[in-house]
Amino acid sequence: MEVSIQHVIGTIALAALTISVALAFQVVVGYVEVNVLKTQLNQVAEYVSLNIASLVSLTEFAYGELYTWTVTKDLNLPTDLSGKSYLVKIIEEDGVYYVQVELAVRKSLNAKSPIPLNLTRTLLYIVTDSNFTITDGTIKPCSEIYGGDTKALVWCEKRIINGEEKLCVGLGRRE
């Protein structure tokens, strides 16, 4: 039984075409997945950022003078984003504070949202040190929180730091 060279070339061409279509499909799916993840990361960053801003405004305006209690707001974070775990943290760039949300295994895929603050009287102190002690002993300040953590929250309290009244705000977990 003879196999002609035309059949061999045709079979190789068909196999190459199948592989190219599969690779093109993977590239398109990867591109769509990254865009969906970026949108989800942005939504979480904006959610946390707005919660921090509203908590700071509430603490500054509603409680006026030095306030010795900790004001908190629980965060309702999605368990994962498209099946991937993620981290939430507060960062500072050029004097502006942002909430940054990034994938735990791919830190280059992240989104950040500025914290929209309009303070009138009080200085702000963003706490990113997990060793910072706050008034409410049931809350542990965190430099970052994991997505889906049911005990995640934002907290805020007024303090005297270096002789100045400051609003301390940060991420945390209820212990």
Low-confidence stretches: none
Give the % helix: 25-40%
Number of strands: 9
Q: By helix and strand content, what is the structural category?
A: alpha+beta
- Tell me the radius of gyration: 25 Å
Shape: rod-shaped
Number of domains as seen in the coordinates:
1
Largest sheet geometry? 5 strands, mixed
Number of helices: 1
Distance between the ends: 77 Å
Which structural traits does this protein have?
alpha+beta, single chain, 1 helix, five-stranded mixed sheet
Structural summary, described in words:
The chain is of the alpha+beta class and 175 residues long. It has one domain. 33% of the residues lie in helices and 33% in strands. It has 1 helix and 9 strands. The strands form 2 sheets. Strands 1, 5, 6, 8 and 9 form a 5-stranded mixed β-sheet that branches. Strands 4-3-2-7 form a 4-stranded antiparallel β-sheet, covered by helices on one side. Strand 2 and strand 3 form a beta hairpin. The longest helix has 58 residues. The chain is rod-shaped and about 95 Å long.
Describe the structure concisely.
The chain is built from one helix and nine strands. With about 180 residues, it is of the alpha+beta class.
List the helices and strands and how they pair.
Blueprint: H1 5-62, E1 71-74, E2 86-93, E3 96-103, E4 110-114, E5 123-127, E6 139-142, E7 144-146, E8 152-161, E9 164-174
Parallel strand pairs: 5-9
Antiparallel strand pairs: 1-8, 2-3, 2-7, 3-4, 6-9, 8-9
